[in-house]
Amino acid sequence: MELGLIGLGKMGGNMRERIRRAGHTVIGYDRNPDLADVNSLQELVDKLQGPRVVWVMVPAGVPTQQTVDQLAEVLSPGDIVVDGGNSRWTDDIAHAEALATKGIGFVDAGVSGGVWGLENGYALMVGGEAEHVAKVQPIFDALKPSGDFGFVHAGKVGAGHFAKMVHNGIEYALMQAYAEGWELLEAAEVTTNVHDIFRSWKEGTVIRSWLLDLAVRAMEEDPHLGHLRGYAEDSGEGRWTVEAAIDHAVPLPAITASLFARFSSRQDDSPQMKMIAALRNQFGGHAVTAVSDHKGADSPGADVEPPAVS
Question: What DSSP string describes 201-230?
Fold first, then answer.
């Protein structure tokens, strides 16, 4: 199968490679010519045989909107656009309606897997009409982990990103729980080897998880996370989850509290946020801030490079 892929950053570049390994043809475009296979969106479209499938993997908001608008002008009826970024689910509905007037299909795909997805596969939460999802299914199969799990057609347009939004809200709460436990263990005089305590939980406990594994890995690199400033961004999905909970009158005390805890990192060098920052760096390659580079609460300082994927 042929696929056009727009956006070849940390996620998009690895996705291109994983899809190619599965035997599909991927033509990639990125504003960075060193990463791109073609020089423009028009050239990308011209190199694909119809009906085309073009996957958008750019930042949510204005960049995605601009890309979808451009594709609406160069694609043909019967083609399909897939938004695999972290767009808000309500934006998906607007994109689908706009593209439908030109006979172009739309699928939203929430993608989880971070910098580890190339080797481990990506969890995919997809929304859209069944016929459109079916046309993209070979690509979904190439990206997902091996086995029975890691892919779901979650519902109509918007359902994929709604599911990914909730997934990320849960992620916020899980990371916060690990961070709070870690800080308490670090603060207590009686516990002298916090790294080994976390490591002992990797087998036989009900709180074992990939996030726990990554916390252990972070502490192997920096036992007390001393080189990190306790500052962690929120990427949007946590706020959207809380807003959706308000709209649906669903109580989300743990997720809401974890979002507010991120806000606390803007005020002080929060010890809990050191662990949150470390976990985000481990699973997603998100930039972290070194203590030595901190110039004040409003100046995060220089980024620290994410660990190499092994």
Answer: TTSSSTT--HHHHHHHHHHHHSTT-TTB-S
Note the pLDDT of residue 268: 62
Q: Output the CA angle 265-267-272, nearest 5 degrees.
A: 30
Encode pLDDT of 253-293 as tens digits. Answer: 999 999 998 888 776 677 788 888 899 888 888 888 776 65
Which of 135, 144, 156, 164 is catalytic? The answer is: 164
pLDDT in the model for residue 304:
43
- Give the separation between CA 199 and CA 176, rounded to whole angstroms: 18
> Where do runs of H (alpha helix) occur along the chain?
10-21, 41-47, 62-74, 89-100, 117-120, 130-143, 159-187, 194-200, 210-221, 237-248, 253-264, 271-284
**What confidence tens digit (pLDDT) does each residue in 165-184 have?**
999 999 999 999 999 999 99
The residue behind tokens 């993608």 is: 111
What is 2-156's CATH superfamily? Answer: NAD(P)-binding Rossmann-like Domain (3.40.50.720)
Question: Superfamily for 165-304?
Answer: N-(1-d-carboxylethyl)-l-norvaline Dehydrogenase; domain 2 (1.10.1040.10)
- Catalytic residue, chosen from 135, 171, 237, 274, is 171
Rounded Cα distance, 56 and 82, in Å? 6
> What tens digit of pLDDT does each residue of 55-108 get?
999 999 999 999 999 999 999 999 999 999 999 999 999 999 999 999 999 999
CA-based torsion, 85, 89, 153, 173: positive or negative: positive
Q: Is residue 302 within 8 Å of 290, Cβ to Cβ?
A: yes
pLDDT of residue 236: 84
Q: How far is CA 125 from the centre of its chain?
A: 12
Active site (annotated) includes residue 164: yes
Residue 16 structure tokens: 């291109």
> pTM score, two decimals?
0.84
